[in-house]
Amino acid sequence: MKTIAIGAQGGLEHLQIKEQKDPQPAAGEVLVRWHATSLNYHDYLVGVGGIPVPEGRVPMSDGAGEVTAVGEDVTAWKVGDKVMSLFFPNWLDGRPTPGKTTAISGETVDGFLTEMSCVSAHSLTHIPAGFSYAEAATLPCAALTAWRALVVEGQLKMGDKVLIEGTGGMSIFALQLALTAGAEVYATTSSPEKAERLKSMGVKEVVNYREDECWGRAIYKLSGGGVDHVLDVGGGSTMQQSIEAAAMGGHIASIGILGNGRKGEITFPKLFFKHLRMTGLAVGSRSMQEDMIRAIELSNWRPVIDSSFGFTELADAFRYQESGAHFGKIVLEY
Ligand SMILES: NC(=O)c1ccc[n+]([C@@H]2O[C@H](COP(=O)([O-])OP(=O)(O)OC[C@H]3O[C@@H](n4cnc5c(N)ncnc54)[C@H](OP(=O)(O)O)[C@@H]3O)[C@@H](O)[C@H]2O)c1
Hints:
Blueprint: E1 2-5, E2 16-19, E3 29-38, H1 41-48, E4 64-70, E5 82-85, H2 98-101, E6 116-120, E7 124-126, H3 133-136, H4 139-153, E8 161-165, H5 169-180, E9 184-189, H6 192-200, E10 205-208, H7 215-222, E11 227-232, H8 239-245, E12 246-254, H9 268-273, E13 277-280, H10 286-298, E14 305-310, H11 314-323, E15 329-333
Parallel strand pairs: 8-9, 8-11, 9-10, 11-12, 12-13, 14-15
Antiparallel strand pairs: 1-2, 3-4, 3-6, 3-15, 4-5, 5-7
Helix pairs in contact: 4-5, 7-8
The protein binds NADP nicotinamide-adenine-dinucleotide phosphate.
The site of NADP nicotinamide-adenine-dinucleotide phosphate has 33 residues, from α1, α4, α5 and β9.
């Protein structure tokens, strides 16, 4: 079987293709033939060496595939089951703890850009009924983050107003989940063409964050007094505007650091005089993933897949992601 591994020097030009013997599942493990993964910004950082990992680490936190063998004592899965991975393979339920979140797929433990691997039987969920492997592989990181921001932490209600920022994978899932739940969605983007596409999907108003640096204020006005939920993807580069966009008593999920936003300044009185709640969040648990899958199975939308690459084309796929031309998810199928 073939595996892609991060090279000793890290970086896209040093990715390695390895030929290895097919693994055998130990007790408590299942062998999965992986068929698809999808690109997240976290994977990109691992790929380009922005998050250092040991030589030989298999990248990519998302995987979808089929169970091809089960180890002793495994009762939860059988050969032929279609499964998908967990971002945190040991966070099954309850509050996050250091112990549950130390293992991160594709970073601190091997990910899923491999034809086969053995994983703990507890580190998988079913894929949504009727989904292709490529569609399922878009869900464990990006969709679950949007689900947690809106549904778990945000307690989204019908009629709420939601702001998504940009048109990357996580934001487009937030758009689809919010519309499914009966919310009104506002968006920012840097592209007029993408703004049109957002509107055709049901977004009420779109503001170009490159043309209007006070886009938070613009969203506040367009939404008639602010939005109830903001999914902030830029941290230091967007948080002040996210606070401006929020309605009094609203919720902001701090999700990303796009636009060099690792650090930044915010006006604290705005935060407390608007009675805002802010949640820092990293993906979610297996039980959240199971809840999300149930909800997706009852809805009638599919993940928006912008483009698909082959097993050995990770570097090309990351360069495409880097260009920012995509809308929704980029996948690799194998
Ligand atoms: N905390 C978590 O658990 C978690 C999970 C998933 C993702 N994230 C984070 O969420 C962010 C998005 O992730 P992703 O995988 O969806 O990325 P992605 O697919 O690569 O999305 C990138 C898109 O974001 C938009 N963007 C770029 N810079 C921006 C800026 N300064 N302000 C507003 N929008 C900007 C652009 O949209 P336009 O082309 O429309 O302008 C770009 O196409 C990343 O920071 C990622 O690390 C965090």
